[in-house]
């Protein structure tokens, strides 16, 4: 299940799912009453009315609960036309999963999801409005047919038939994006150095032969496949939800002959670890190609031992600006800076007391060194001396490498449109830290929970 905050929309979605099953129960009760009265040769209209009321209420809930769920799970993706179109595509939501009825995060029930990035034409919006208006009139005609008598009922039935014939059938792909049952899921475990390295090992076992060592689709078996393997680089994470990528690994992709359906072989947490490795690798590609992380990437979590702070993980330093230094024995110690907390990546050291006084905490695992080399786009042996800046929310913001004349990378690079070239910065540390605090990173679709 995905992490999910209780919000107004989340509570509304849960209430609508419960109300939906209650309405179906009401419709079934009405059917039983009608059959019982018919067997007794009594008027069975009251039972039919009860059944019609239950079906109308169930239909309303089936139309509305996916829209409320989407508004709770991905509020940034939701707009008016998308929600309305989603409601019209909610035929698959008639039977919400009973086993997850009381949870805030059931599987997504529809093959479509809202996406605010899809350009909406005036024609599509006009067709949507016509569908909504005629659909509302059709519901009124159905209600009238259930509760009126004689000639008025016949007129309501005929009006409903005419409205149904006139009802436009909007194409969901004009306003919505494809979805999977796992679309809104998020990984449970933190984005960590240990998880990234475990994901690399799993990738090499399950994916490398087709997708290649560099995830560029150039694996040893690529040419033998009916369809060429996908490139698993930065573009993979730009417009995709984490849950869709997770589903693709376990159940297979959109291509009919996709080979990566590893549901029986991989545990769920292993699929997330592969994605974490690919995300870290994609961040390194962005750094090599653009001198900046073009999509928000969290600083990988790692175990710490600190001089003065009672924290054991990087996450415990949230709220502070953090500088992470790839420190090698005999290397130049970083200058002290009271505005930041400084962490040394120094594999094998026993504790921070063996480090210069300018360093506050130590990350001594080899996994941490390797994970940060990956997100920096460097070979492990070339990382020594590099410095990372992490903002107060835990996002990687800027990188400095020894010998690089361009200095620190732009701290706002992940906030720029993808088509915009990242300008370089040569300004000093005070300006850099001020800009980090002044610019808030937008939560990405992949790993909205860090």
Automatic annotation (TrEMBL):
The chain crosses the membrane at residues 6-35, 47-68, 128-147. The keyword Metal-binding applies. Gene3D superfamilies: Cytochrome c-like domain. Residues 194-282 form the Cytochrome c domain. One of its GO terms (molecular function) is heme binding. It comes from the Bacteria. It holds the Pfam family Cytochrome_CBB3. This is Cytochrome C oxidase, cbb3-type, subunit III. It comes from Pollutimonas bauzanensis. The lineage of its organism: Bacteria, Pseudomonadati, Pseudomonadota, Betaproteobacteria, Burkholderiales.
